[in-house]
Amino acid sequence: MCAMTFPDIKCNWQMLLLSFVLASGLWYAVTVRDRLGVQAEVNLTYRGMPENLMVREGMLKNFTVQLRGPRELIKNLDTKMLTYSVDLSRLRPGTNVIALSTPFTKAESRALDVVELVPNQLVLEAEDVVEYLVPLEVRFNTPALAQALKAENLHASPDSVSIRGPESVIRKIQSLKLDVPLEPAAMGEYQLLLPVSTPAQVTATPGAVLVRYSIAGARVSLALERTPFLDAKNPQQYRITPPKTALTVELPTGLKDNKSYLEKIRVVISAKDLPLSGSGEVRPFVELPEGARLMGISPAKLSVTKNGK
Prior knowledge:
alpha+beta, RNA Polymerase Alpha Subunit, Chain A, domain 2, 7 helices, 22 strands
C-alpha cells in the first residue's frame, strides 16, 4: 500500500516515465536535432622557416577536420576556404612534432565541436642546410656520335657551381654531370646554354652554364632507297604506290658505312593517315637517328589503296 506522502512521485511511475521521455525529447530537440556534422579539408600554409634549416619529410598540403555545430553556423561555414598557418620558427634539426588546430575564430570555436582531426599533428624531419662548390663533369650524351663527328674542345663556363641543400644529400655529391646534346650540324664551333640538373631539394648557382665545343669531322650526303613502313595492325590490307621512296640524307662521314645506324633511317606511314576505304594520298614522315639530317624525299606523297574484301 502506497504511503500518503508524495503520492505523485512514489506511486505514479507512469507519470515519471512520461516526464523522462518528454525531457529527453526536449533535450534532443534543443541540443542534437538542430546540430549538424560536416567534414572539411583545411589547407596548410607555412611561415617562419629558419634560413639555415630545410624540411626533408613530413610537410603536408592539407588535413581533414570533422565538426559538429549549430545548423545555421554549419550551413554558412565556407569549408572550401579553410586555411591553417603552421609556425616553423621553433624548428630544430631532427624530428619535430607540431600539433594541428582549427582556423576558427574564438566565437566559432565556442559554438563548434571538433570531433576529429586527421592527422592531428605534423611530424617534420628537419635538417641543416649547407652550401658547397662542386665541379661539373661535362660530357656528350651520345659518345659514339661524338666520336664519328670528331666533336672536341668540350668545356663549360663556369666549370663549377655552388650547390645548396640538406647536408645529408649535399655531402654525397662530389660533382654534377652535365650531358651535352649534339646537333646534326656541320663542322665548326658551337655553344649552348644548358641547365644544371640537381637532386631533389638541391639548388645550383648558377642554374645554367654556357657550353662550348667544336666539330672537326666531315659530313656526307647519301642517296638511299626505302620501302615505306605501314604503322597499322593489318598492313597487308593496303597497297602503296610507288613501293619505294628515294631519300637524300646528310650524316657524319664516319657513319656512312655503319649498317645498324643506316637501318634506323625509315619512311613511315601513320595509321591515322590511312583511308578507311578506297584510296588516298598520304604524306609519310622519315625517322632519323641522331646526327642525321633529311635533305630530300621523293615522292613527297604516296598513294595508299585499301584492298577490297
